[in-house]
Amino acid sequence: MVITSPVRFIPEEIERSIMFLELRPPDISELVDLVREEAPVLAPHSLDGAGEPLLEQLARALLGLTLDEAGYALRRALSANPCMGPDSIPYLLEEKRVLVSRSGVIDYVSDGTSLGEVGGLEGLKKWLIERQKLFQMRDQLTNEIVPKGLLMMGIPGCGKSLCVKAIASCFQLPLYRVDMIEIFSGRHGKAEGVFVEACKMMEEMAPAVLWFDEIEMGVTSAESGGEQGRIFAFFLTWMQEKTRGLFVAATANRIDLLPAEMIRKGRFDEVFFVDLPHDDERIDIFRIHLVRRGVDASQFNLANLVSFTVGWTGAEIEQCVVSAMTQARLADRDVTEEDLIKTSVKIVPLSRTMKEQINHIRSWAFERAVRASPNPTGR
Ligand SMILES: Nc1ncnc2c1ncn2[C@@H]1O[C@H](COP(=O)(O)OP(=O)(O)OP(=O)(O)O)[C@@H](O)[C@H]1O
Ligand SMILES: [Mg+2]
């Protein structure tokens, strides 16, 4: 007798007499076949000139979808672009975005920040470029060398979220964000079940970067017997055993809430501490934000701003650039270095108002994490 069902519910009395078979979504070779067979039916010349590598690239973008869903994704891509190529991939990924957003706890982040848009943090960037190489070779490497992920902790507004977005672009992978607050809201059922489901769903979406933002909101071992403790235990095992195609980027502010086991080597490949940017980094961040807004930064002597911005975060630098540009726009002229200096004296940095907390974060992190910037700030 064969019983098929979308949910697993087997009465206890017969549980031991039944063999349970879970049908997984199609694998890469099934998806390659699907693209090869379906695409020319939907649009006759859609695969003209497409070789095996492109077929595999397209199929990879469909991993995690059922055959029906993959079929919709193909139609979507072909209606936008009747000849399939690398440009079709975002359309294929769109179907996944719809699928994950249905879960209510995972979002697809489409922001394509590049590593070049992150100021400073050279140590972290160098590490990422190395990991990207290893990650690409993951199928030929032994388990302990395949990059699993990183944990970034640090002062709010210094670029943790920005870096996660840059990782996805650097690795050329889609980025999914797990919303810990939503998981614990109770709106989607019991947090434990929702968390486990989300992690499993993401394994089927691999390859991808998976971002746990403010991980300390969910994964603390404060009450080891309770739900949080069980989620934490699940997360630690999952980090060890998850598929190779997922790179986990976890970010945290309240690092002191994170249990020691989480930080111990082996769970994450590295734990980085993102500190307040030092002098050269602040100049770099000013330049990035001016250029991003179409200002020719070469006409500025940004070094003049260093002494006005001691203890500033990247977010405060951005705020300064935006306010200075707003002032200049109101006066109907281009922004000048004067505008930046005038604005800067009005900004009271978080590091001054929250001196205690920041010192606490720093002293805690210095012993437990690697600095994301190579040279210490000297403060
Ligand atoms: N190193 C940096 N280079 C360029 N821009 C930066 C940098 N750090 C911060 N910024 C700017 O500040 C904004 C806020 O930074 P981000 O959201 O990455 O901080 P965060 O560390 O994640 O903070 P939070 O802990 O509040 O989530 C960014 O969108 C970016 O524009
Ligand atoms: Mg953030």
Mean pLDDT: 87
Instruction: Give the helices and strands as they follow along the chain.
Output: HHHHHEHEHEHHEHEHEHHHHHE
Q: Give the CATH level 1 class of the largest domain.
A: Alpha Beta
Radius of gyration: 24 Å
Strand content: 5-15%
What's the CATH H-level superfamily name of the largest domain?
Answer: P-loop containing nucleotide triphosphate hydrolases
CATH architecture of the largest domain: 3-Layer(aba) Sandwich
End-to-end separation in angstroms reads 72 Å
Main beta sheet, described?
7 strands, mixed
Number of domains: 3
Q: Helix coverage percent of residues? A: 40-55%
Class by alpha and beta content: alpha/beta
The low-confidence runs, each spanning 5 or more residues with pLDDT under 50, are none
- List the ligand species: adenosine-5'-triphosphate, magnesium ion
Strand order of the largest sheet: 1-3-4-5-2-6-7
Q: Given the structure, what is the number of helices? A: 16
Shape: globular
- Overall strand count: 7
What is the CATH topology of the largest domain? Answer: Rossmann fold
